Amino acid sequence: MGGSIVLFGPPGAGKGTQADAIVLATGKPQISTGDMLRAALAEGTELGLEAKKYMEAGELVPDDVIIGLIRERLKSQDAINGVLFDGFPRTIPQAEALAEIAEVSMVISIQVPDEAIVERIVGRRMDPETGEIYHIKFKPAPSEISSRLIQRKDDNEDAVRTRLSAYHSQTSPLAEWYLQRGILKSVNGNQAMGDVQDEISLLLV
Ligand code: AP5
Predict the structure, then answer these.
(1) Closest Cα to residue 178, out of 99, 66, 60, 85?
(2) Residue 78, φ and ψ in degrees, nearest 5
(3) Which of 100, 114, 165, 179 could crosslink 184 through cysteines, CB 3.0-4.6 Å?
């Protein structure tokens, strides 16, 4: 499939969880704006420091910062045959900017109701050595690594409510925007991880 793919959905929908299999199936590199911002924060760059207050509060980082980040990233050689965007675009201005610099062939919307989101987010843990995402109930980590697992600062109930409201007011209108362009495909994200993956695989053939 030519062009780029966008993984779309609320916080905790399973975008990061499903990304690996899509990368494997398509050969397109994953570009996660959340991961890029967290890396900038860990390195203490100016960008990271600017993004910090928004991220920890659960608010969206301003569009010009994000668009600048993506423009730079898309200059890399590995982006030439399209990429898998995870967590971008998240506003109509971001989608408009993207349309000017890259071709999007499919938007995969992972649908999960709000009631399921808080439990997923609050129970998420990450292995800092491998980047693997776990969940205390839905995907427990092997016991030998459990002591090194970390929890994201924005994975608390207050921040998640703000993230959900940012999603509903600023991001969800994008679904209609892409639907009008005929490239939006929806999958049921409120089922076992393997079943979500199976639904996505059918879209990629
Ligand atoms: P970002 O890192 O993109 O966070 P997010 O969109 O809130 O998405 P998450 O990473 O929380 O969820 P996910 O869908 O990847 O779920 P996961 O697979 O981990 O962004 C963080 C912040 O950065 C934003 O708040 C904002 O400030 C800023 N930002 C980033 N991009 C931006 C942009 N474009 N514009 C402006 N600001 C931006 O799964 C979650 C948990 O559920 C895991 O524990 C997993 O094991 C579990 N799980 C997954 N699937 C299932 C399943 N089917 N059943 C049960 N459990 C499951």
Answers:
(1) 99
(2) -70, -10
(3) 179
Q: Digits of tens for pLDDT over the chain (205 positions)?
A: 779 999 999 999 999 999 999 999 999 999 999 999 999 999 999 999 999 999 999 999 999 999 999 999 999 999 999 999 999 999 999 999 999 999 999 999 999 999 999 999 999 999 999 999 999 999 999 999 999 999 999 999 999 999 999 999 999 999 999 999 999 999 999 999 999 999 999 999 8
* Distance in angstroms (rounded) separating the CA atoms of residues 197 and 17: 9
Atom of ligand 1 nearest to the CA of 54: 27
Find the 101 Cα to ligand 1 centroid distance in Å: 24
Atom of ligand 1 nearest to the CA of 163: 25
How many angstroms is it from 13 CA to the middle of ligand 1? 7
